[in-house]
Specification:
single chain; about 250 residues; alpha/beta; seven-stranded mixed β-sheet
Length: about 250
């Protein structure tokens, strides 16, 4: 058995924040949104899921007012050197999720083929964050188990090739969901968030199965995710954790 001993072997990385303008929140007020990555200390390899906010053009900088925390600082706070990172997994390739990829040049970057193709098109992200010297992409199409108990799953919606990471530990399963659920899909206002949106979709699926007719839609990929029975679900822009069973909220 080489999978993680405990879910707690996955560490959240504080990579900064940005300010979403009032025009984009649906509330009439701006909202500060966190940017998180995740460090997975697996016995076979060390994985970082998302690397933070990359440099943008002056217009984007003024629009989102990003505040960056370096990846090496965040990893150090988790007790790990960036030199120990073997594999990068990006949920998707928007500039606030792949910003430090270039500092890990030569490492294997796991990405869905559809996401890489989208990122290389115009008006998607910043090209220098994608095709930098030493960029080493491992393109996959769909689901892939990259180590014992580490499964990359396609979770499209926010972007065409968005993906999440299932971490199966000896004490349960964690889903690192990135931006599979977004603030924009949740109840507007400060109480809404990615975890709330995920909880709503989870409940819609369960309730529909209970009554035998569709009550509300949920993403197609959720059916596959639920087969892993995650005890916790964590996100890229929300510090809240979804735990379907309160006993699993360790």
């Amino acid at each position: 058995m080489t999978r993680l001993a405990r879910i707690d072997d996955v560490h959240r990385l504080d990579l900064g924040f940005f300010v979403r303008p009032a025009a984009e929140t649906g509330t009439g007020q701006p909202r500060v949104e966190a940017v998180y990555g995740y460090l997975v200390n697996h016995p076979e390899l060390t994985v970082v899921f998302d690397t933070g906010i990359g440099a943008a053009d002056p217009e984007t900088e003024a629009h989102y007012q990003p505040h960056r925390r370096p990846l090496d600082l965040a990893c150090g706070e988790a007790g790990c050197s960036v030199d120990a990172i073997d594999v990068v997994i990006n949920s998707h390739l928007h500039f606030d999720h792949c910003g430090a990829n270039a500092t890990l040049a030569g490492r294997r970057i796991i990405v869905q083929s559809t996401e890489l193709e989208a990122a290389r098109a115009e008006n998607y992200t910043f090209p220098e964050l994608i095709d930098f010297d030493g960029a080493t992409y491992d393109r996959i199409d769909g689901e892939a188990e990259i180590a014992d108990g580490l499964v990359v799953l396609p979770t499209p919606g926010h972007s065409p090739g968005h993906q999440s990471l299932v971490v199966r530990a000896q004490d349960g399963t964690l889903l690192v969901a990135g931006q599979a659920m977004d603030f924009s899909t949740a109840t507007p206002g400060p109480v809404g968030g990615c975890a709330s949106a995920y909880a709503s979709a989870h409940l819609a699926r369960r309730a529909t199965h209970d009554v035998g007719r569709l009550l509300a839609p949920w993403p197609d990929w959720l059916d596959r995710v639920e087969q892993f029975d995650p005890a916790r679900v964590v996100f890229a822009h929300d510090g809240a954790t979804f735990a379907p069973d309160i006993a699993s909220d360790r």
